[in-house]
Amino acid sequence: MTAHKPLSDWVARLDPRRPNGLDLTNDGDERGDARTFPLFADGWRRQAAVLSDGTTALALYRPDDDTTYVELDDYGTPLDIDLPGADLIEHIERSWPGADPDLTAFSALSRELRYLVLLRLNQEGQPSARLFHALDWAPVVELARAVGILLDGSPSPVLSAGAQDLEHWVTPAGSGITGPLEQLYEGLTAADEPALVVVGASGFCAGIVRADPARFPEAVASAFAKVAEALGRADPFLRHAAQLAGDRLTGRPVTRLSADLNSELPKAASREGNRSVVATLRDDGPLRLQVEVTAGGQLRLTVTIAVVSGPDRDLLVSAYGEIFSPVTLRTRDEELRYWVVLKARRQWLAGTLDVPSPRGRFTVDADAPPIGLLGLTRITSDELLRSLRSANNSGKRLWRDAARRSPLGHPLRTAVDLLDRGAS
After folding, report:
1. What does pTM read for this prediction?
2. Is 336 exposed, middle or buried (0-12, 13-18, 19+ CB in 10 A)?
């Protein structure tokens, strides 16, 4: 398959008979994605096409029939490019997917083109981390620094228009980071939005834990690290994930709540009276995961967060609505995520699930941050149902209470309904 195909999902055929020199977007199929059209399977070259107004735009040219398609942005406007820029993209695509262009030359491309090239290269190849430094990071740094200031209790500086609406320009470097950062800012500056702060904080930490920190320029990593560290100080429920995020961003040694286990117990553990193996995962923070592997093919997952009851904890629990802590089981072929709902007690919060054990060797981890009731809206009802079924009676009561407090259409309501109807 040729590497010369659209970078944008919209294109228009060059047609001098038209008033603006361009035919219909996607030949009339505006809902389609030009990147997947069979039309562009083979036989195309890159060029900077000259438009009717004398400007040049990124285009694909097929010499067999002298056909040219111009690439369009999200507003249907041709993507401006000069001849050196088109030559650079030609070079990148000829060496696809192992492209490693000069960073200075690549940074000279427009914001849209840098985004589109890295979006596709990230999907199809293994680009050098340094290429992502060419993305439009300045507004992201500005917003991250403002969030750090707010978390430290000081008023935020006035933001530029770009920092107030980050859009999608840096998402090829890592998904699920800028959106939560915007939620954090909105929640911290609104009069009464503690639940939105929780959603943003959990999402931000989760995004950083998943991301490759080498893709962030130094100023970005520094600003992100300060946000993560401030979140860890402000929210003890997030402390592990926030510390893990900060350590990864700064290059410090990391402590993961992760272990490789085996459902096939050693002979000593299988003797009468000793039918299980227990592993306890913790760092120097309040979060602890205890995993009990039984000879009967079951796992007992017990999550504990040691935070003593008091006004600060009560306010935080109220902001979460309910606290759901994720535990993930991974095998070579499968990954399953469970959610443990935590019951507040005087000295800690804790919850337990009894789940089927994967066969043979598997990995268990609790590195991802807990989320609240509002955060569950992005989890499917099928995933929640798996955890509901595995909860004990006390846990099921907490799940049902949370469902009653959730808005109509919330996936938790659907999961509880499926449980009550005995759905398989």
Report:
1. 0.91
2. middle
